[in-house]
Design a protein that fits this description.
By secondary structure, this protein is α/β, with parallel strands linked by helices. It has four helices and four strands; from the N terminus they run βαβαβαβα.
């Protein structure tokens, strides 16, 4: 499973990626807006938007790409590890292929 995290704290990028690895997910983290963000997002399974630490322009760009590639979107106002953990738990709990999905058989 692949995840794109939009927003968050610059110093926590490694911690976000490590937590996603625990859930067998590949993660890309974008805390700052750059010119080629749209090209770098790709087609992930899940977009995580930390709305408290991100610009409206980045949110709009991420939502447009999520709609284009039909990805799920999870929003959180806080950008803590616990917030990301809850999002990953909820996403794995709602997985329609939970029994056969190797990503969701973590715990």
């Amino acid at each position: 499973m692949s995840i794109v995290i939009i927003g968050g704290n610059d110093r926590m990028v490694t911690q976000y990626k490590d937590l996603c690895k625990e859930y067998r997910c590949r993660a890309k983290v974008f805390t700052q807006m750059n010119g080629a963000l749209k090209k770098k997002l790709g087609a992930p399974d899940l977009f995580v938007l930390f709305t408290g630490t991100v610009s409206h322009k980045m949110v709009n760009c991420a939502l447009a790409e999520a709609k284009r590639c039909k990805a799920d979107v999870a929003r959180s106002h806080t950008s803590s590890l616990n917030a990301l953990r809850e999002i990953l738990e909820d996403y794995c709990a709602s997985c329609p292929n939970k029994e056969t999905c190797s990503d969701c058989q973590v715990h």
